[in-house]
Amino acid sequence: MKILVCISHVPDTTSKINFTNGDTEFDTNGVQYVINPNDEYGLTRAISFQEQQGATVTVVNVGGPETEPTLRKALAIGANEAIRVNATPTDGFFVAKQLAEIIKNGNYDLVIAGKESLDYNGGMVPGMTAGILDFNFLNSCTNITVDGTNVKAIREIDGGKETVSTTLPLVIGAQKGLVEEKDLRIPNMRGIMTARTKPLTISDPVEAPINTKAVKFEKPAPKSAVKLVSPDNLDELINLLHNEAKVI
Amino acid sequence: MSILIYAESSDGKFKKVAFELASYASKVAESLGTTVTALTINNTNSDELAQYGVSKVLAVSNEKLNTFTAKAYADVLKQAAEKEASKLVILSSSTDSIYLSSLLAVNLNAGFASNVVGLPISTSPFQVKRNAFSNKAFNITEINTEVKIIALAKNSYGLHENSASLTAEDFNPSLNDADFSIHIDSVEKATGKVAIADADIVVSGGRGLKGPENWHLIEDLASALGAATACSKPVSDLGWRPHSEHVGQTGKPVATNLYIAVGISGAIQHIAGINASKVKVVINNDPEAPFFKVADYGVVGDAFEVVPKLIEKIKAFNAQH
């Protein structure tokens, strides 16, 4: 089985979010980057397919040279090889077009992408990639097993879950639950050393229409201070929630 | 040329998001000088949508569509959009709608913006404001395609009544086997519990509860309020609660009317996941807990004393209202 894991290079979850250039660009100053957490769940599941079922795992990112340390980290965790599509990821459709091209050329059977990235939160790349290729698509996937080309999986739904069966080729939108938190891997020294010699191929982008563009960013208005209520006066809390906030 | 919305149902009844979507779409339709058509699937109560400004319903009845299948539903929506010559399709941000939206965008060659908050900033060029960076910022996105899709963030517009006279017509889209290539074997839904995604109020517990044996405090408070229960990441990582209840940046997002955090300190990742909620209440014995910086109302006190008292007060309040 050939697995492709799509990796977004995103600001660490504790990052302060600021913008520059008249609020048209994300301010990368002082920001630490990580593998997008939903992608990391997917990568971890892919590595266990590699260890248990002899799958090969390729990781791919659409981005500039600054994203390579994130791909190297994925290699250190255990991916066999990496591809960087050398382009600025302008919108979800553009990224999906690039991924579709890589998938077509590499004959991947299973494509794993986080169901959403923590920066733009578009949540559209996995589905668009499947749509372009006419692959099966399962979003919000919390469990997957593969036997030959047969797939059993679980999808989280609002208020529960559903069990599905389908076949490869398949794209899944990965999320929390796909692997256990304790199974997430921190690269060890040996992994980091071998990652340096694993192949990282740079690929040229294909053309794609500009369907959407981010024109500007805004930060939320500053919040007013919390109103404290004494634990001995909870009637006041009920009163505030009922009469002021009007939520009960 | 009308705006098309997908009015979602659950167990044959419209979900609240269907009415929010109708309210929103009818306001957008007003500014574009058009009307709203709703697609419904296996739901015969079309009339309810008229109250929120929908003037036409395309009603699909088909047994094959009893269980949600993203590809089939996206195919149905595509055919509905083409029939209505819709240039704008508006969806909700439910798990199902998000799932089908990206497939529909490819089907319709449409530019797609998700997590949209508020009415379009401009209709020509078409620009919308959306949540980004896990609710730490907004992003203004321009959609340049002829057909556009937007997904409205939950609870970001609310319900606004605006009666329209409605005509309903049966709609029989053609379906093919490929639409059902993901076969649903079984569906498990927690019964008698409010789902986080559908809840108006969410009560959430953190490590301050000290152990899973104390979870009845959260459940009792939630039950007094008719709320869903949730938890912080450490609580799900420790296995006190299932991961499906974890809310936060890497867990479930919460955009509810009232979010009550009990014994949750308020790590930045937790706040990012719940910040879209309208009113936030924190109960914590540490006045320095970061949650107090983002909450609207706070109680500094021991959860084991405050929560039982609060439950009594809410029961008394419920008895009067």
TrEMBL record, chain A:
Belongs to the ETF beta-subunit/FixA family. Residues 23-212 form the Electron transfer flavoprotein alpha/beta-subunit N-terminal domain. One of its GO terms (molecular function) is electron transfer activity. InterPro entries: ETF_a/b_N, ETF_b, ETF_beta_N, Rossmann-like_a/b/a_fold. This is Electron transfer flavoprotein subunit beta. The keyword DNA damage does not apply. Pfam families: ETF (PF01012). GO terms for cellular component: cytosol. Keywords: Electron transport, Transport. SUPFAM superfamilies: Adenine nucleotide alpha hydrolases-like (SSF52402). The lineage of its organism: Bacteria, Pseudomonadati, Bacteroidota, Flavobacteriia, Flavobacteriales.
TrEMBL record, chain B:
GO terms for molecular function: electron transfer activity; flavin adenine dinucleotide binding. Residues 3-184 form the Electron transfer flavoprotein alpha/beta-subunit N-terminal domain. Its cofactor is FAD. GO terms for biological process: fatty acid beta-oxidation using acyl-CoA dehydrogenase. Binds 1 FAD per dimer. Keywords: Electron transport, FAD, Flavoprotein, Transport. It comes from the Bacteria. Belongs to the ETF alpha-subunit/FixB family. This is Electron transfer flavoprotein subunit alpha/FixB family protein.
